[in-house]
Write a structure and sequence with these properties.
Number of domains: 1
Pfam family, one: Acetyltransf_1
Mean pLDDT: 96
Distance between the termini: 29 Å
InterPro entries: Acyl_CoA_acyltransferase, Bact_Acetyltransf, GNAT_dom
Shape: globular
Low-confidence stretches: none
Oligomer: single chain
Protein name: GNAT family N-acetyltransferase
Organism: Planosporangium thailandense
Keywords: Acyltransferase, Transferase
CATH topology: Aminopeptidase
Helix content: 25-40%
Length: 150
């Protein structure tokens, strides 16, 4: 069984490992490491933006939440491939939605790479609506939003 809590400095190495494991399958599709594989998780943890799913003392998933004036940006959500399909990603999405409500904003926004076709279907099944597609930071991204009610 896993639990979810704010990440601490000791989690950074595990969070990076989850990101690499979760995203390395996309390197051949994109032609380079996706942004989450090179993100500065130490800085994000210091800023209190990372929540980690932990099982047996080890990170198995995480979410990076970035408050914005009118929405909550779910900058990244990842689950270790060996633990996918057990509700960890769903729990992390629910956490983001709960944070948006507490922040007093009406939606969660996120984006994913166009080449990550599994994610496109995953978010749609969970009530996220595609808003647009654009090139950003050299990546072809698909943007989503989900309305949350207080």
């Amino acid at each position: 069984m896993f639990s979810v809590r704010p990440a601490v400095a000791d989690d950074v190495t595990g969070v990076r490992a989850v990101a690499v494991a979760a995203y390395e399958v996309y390197v051949p599709r994109i032609g380079r490491p996706p942004a989450p594989m090179t993100a500065d998780y130490a800085q994000a943890v210091r800023e209190g933006r990372v929540w980690v799913a932990v099982e047996n003392g080890e990170p198995v998933g995480f979410a990076v939440l970035v408050p914005q004036p009118d929405h909550l940006l779910l900058e990244n959500v990842a689950v270790s491939p060996g633990t996918q399909g057990r509700g960890i990603g769903t729990r992390l999405l629910a956490l983001a939605e709960d944070h948006a409500r507490r922040q007093g904003v009406s939606e969660v926004r996120l984006y994913t790479n166009e080449a990550m076709t599994e994610n496109l279907a995953y978010y749609a099944r969970r009530g996220y609506v595609e808003t647009h597609r654009a090139e950003q930071d050299g990546f072809r991204r698909v943007f989503f939003r989900k309305a949350v009610t207080p």
